[in-house]
């Protein structure tokens, strides 16, 4: 029979690492939200916690052993994982937010449909951009880059260290700023073209009132939107890479590294 000795410190360290990893995985795309079922997210958390435990133990000077100390450390690790997950979620959600803006200006916001994964109403391009971003994170291996950056936080912020609330708030605020900038960079050119199309239709109506140009506005804007989105989607790969790198920098900022 194979005998694998496991010390108490190793077990406690694994549970604390699992608390941080699990909270982060539960929120961060492409695993967070309802994109994956709870069972798969739990398996992913366990799978990535095992190799991180040894490095986390070597970086930590003190491993809590008392029941109260373990509980406090567990809650702290969950808070750290949630803070880092929120930073990643905020940055990567810029892609789906850009899709929402395109829906509004392209006239697709009226076509709301029930999303069974998110359990809510979702517009067309918001969902397309969200799914496309998740696929790119998986296909390009960007999720592994996120995990590598997350695992490095155990060196900068060991298991026994406390969370710097000031640095966390500053990092999350910067993430929100980056979110709006990235959203405008993704959807801005498409929105500008659609605004120009509205202006052109308005001028055409003033020149030829009997033409009723606005009756042609919806099919025209739908056609323009589909054409522009078809051109823009293949060019999202560098954007996903940049947002992934920004997520790593945000996690490093929260960890104080």
How would you describe what is shown here?
With 257 residues, the protein is mainly α. The protein has one domain. The protein is 74% helix and 2% strand. Strand 1 (113-115) and strand 2 (120-122) form a beta hairpin. It is elongated and about 85 Å long. The protein starts with 7 loop residues before the first helix and ends with a helix. The model has no long low-confidence stretch (mean pLDDT 82).
As a percent range, the share of strand residues is under 5%
Average of pLDDT: 82
Rg from C-alpha positions?
A: 23 Å
The portion of residues assigned to helices is over 70%
The N- and C-terminal alpha carbons lie at a distance of 44 Å
Give the strand tally. 2
Q: What count of domains describes the coordinates? A: 1
Strand order of the main beta sheet, please?
Answer: 1-2
What's the order of the H and E elements? Answer: HHHHEEHHHHHH
What's the SSE blueprint?
Blueprint: H1 8-27, H2 38-59, H3 67-92, H4 94-106, E1 113-115, E2 120-122, H5 124-139, H6 142-151, H7 153-156, H8 165-207, H9 217-232, H10 237-255
Antiparallel strand pairs: 1-2
Helix pairs in contact: 1-2, 1-3, 3-8, 3-10, 4-5, 4-8, 6-10, 8-9, 8-10
